[in-house]
Structure formats: structure tokens, C-alpha cells
Amino acid sequence: MFDLLPSRTGRVIACGHRGHSIEGHENTRPSLRRAAELGASLCEIDLRSTRDGRLVVFHDDILDNASTGTGLISQMDYAEIARLRTRNRNNLAIEGQPIEPFEDVLVYCRDLGLALIVEIKDKFEGSEYLERIVSLLKQAGMFERTLVSSFDYVVLRNIKRLAPGIRTMGINYHRLVEPAATARSAAMDVMNTDYPQFAPDIAESLHAAGVAVSHYVPPPQHFALRRSYGLDYLQLLESYMHLGLIDMLVCDDVAWIVDFINSCGLEPTRLEFAG
């Protein structure tokens, strides 16, 4: 199990959002490999289920926006999806990649030395979906290297009941009244708050309860324009990090987030795994 609270020792986990997706196709081997090369110890990927029950690594429920295909993934068998290739959302002229089965991506990341955040995107009934995830994590030797995340805190509670040793992350868009109570209700190990809703009191409450703090931030271009108008969020973010309020920074641009952590005088942590 890797340390989810590196802020206690002046370190921060650099996490690639869908890999190093700013320069390529999200949720693909090249984006994951590049994230590792740039200094990420952890990457977030997304899960969808096909009509015939295969879990694939893809963000959207439809294929139209980020692949050469069209239609709902849930209405297609894996054999149909395997013929498609990814497509960059920003129309970068780069080679398309396969939409891969979850189990293949797990083995690839294990061999890269990457830990993962696996975000469950689908709505489902019963426990079979979660049982498949747990089984594949164990088969790939990635159970202890993975956080399961969701916006659906009932899903997080249920997978924890199914596999008590698993670690989970709740995704939060809000400034919660009682962050620690919310985290406890789902037995989550980490809570992520997206920019710009992050606030110090959220982190303080979570840390007091032993829950790690993750913060998603957009790429640097977003902040550059606002800084020219006199709003410098990155200066605030640096102060939060020096106060030890953040354990993990998540961004599409791994190179920038690693440089930013270093520029704050902190250290991007390298996760170590047994075996």
C-alpha cells in the first residue's frame, strides 16, 4: 500500500488525469507511459462496460467525441469497439490508439510501476460490476496499487463492503458543510475537490479525520489568462501546499504539475511497491 498522506513529510503525489492527456489521446498506453516518464507516480483512468460485459478504459458513455466510432458503449460488444481507435478531442494530428480492455491496461501500468485511480463512470444495479473490478485488480496484482473513485458515494461504500482492503476516492465539486462526515459515510480514503471549489477548511477537516486530500486543477493556460487579469490562483495554491493541505495534485499536464510542485520547494513523491 502506498502512502496517501505524503503532505505530512513535505511531498505531493503528481497524478496524470487520464494519463498525460494534454499532448495525446487520453486513457491510452502512450498517455500513461508519458505520464510515468514525466514524473507521475499515479494516473487516473476511466471505466465503461460494453454490452457483453467487458470493462474498457474510456471516459465518455458515447464514442463520438473521442474515437473513430459512434454510439453508446453500453450498446456495443467489445469486438465492435476493438476495431475503433481513439481520437484527440482537440484535433491534434496524432496516431489513434486502441480502446483497451481494463485488464490489459492494468498489466501495462503494473509493469510501468504506476499506481492508478480507476473511476467508475457507469450506472448499474447489483454487485456484479464491482465484483468484476475487484477480481481484475487482484488478477493483475494491482489491488494494493489502485484507488477506486466515483462521484457516486454509494458505489464507494458498496465496493468497500465487498472488498474491505480496497482504497477509495470520492470526487467532489462542492464546498461541503461537513467534509469529514461525508467521507466517513462512504468510508473513503481520499476526497478530491476540483478547482475552483477547493478551500482550506475542506482539507483541514479531512486531514483531521485521517482522509487524504486530492485537488484537480486545469492546465496552466487556464491560469495564465486569469493571472493577466489580476487573479493568481497558483499563488494561493502554493500557500495551501506549504501549509500541508494537499496530498495529491491531478492535472492533464503532468510536466507542468511536476514543475509546479518543484517550484513550490516540495517534492513529487515516488511511490514504492513491494514485489
Quickly list its features.
single chain; 275 residues; TIM Barrel; 10 helices; 10 strands; 19% strand
Structural class: alpha/beta
For the record, the CATH architecture stands as Alpha-Beta Barrel
What is the domain total for the residues? Answer: 1
CATH class identity: Alpha Beta
Total helices: the number is 10
Here the CATH topology equals TIM Barrel
What does the radius of gyration come to?
18 Å
- Helices and strands, in N-to-C order? EHEEHHEHEHEHEHEHHEHE
What strand line-up does the widest sheet have?
A: 1-2-4-5-6-7-8-9
Largest sheet: 8 strands, parallel, barrel
Name the CATH superfamily assignment: Phosphatidylinositol (PI) phosphodiesterase
Global shape:
globular
Residue share in helix: 25-40%
Low-pLDDT sequence parts: none
Distance between the termini: 12 Å
Strand content: 15-25%
**Average pLDDT for all residues:** 95
Number of strands: 10
How would you portray this structure in words?
The protein has 275 residues and is α/β, with parallel strands linked by helices. Helix content is 33%, strand content 19%. It contains 10 helices and 10 strands. The protein has an 8-stranded parallel beta barrel, surrounded by 5 helices. Helix 1 runs parallel beside helix 3. The mean pLDDT is 95.
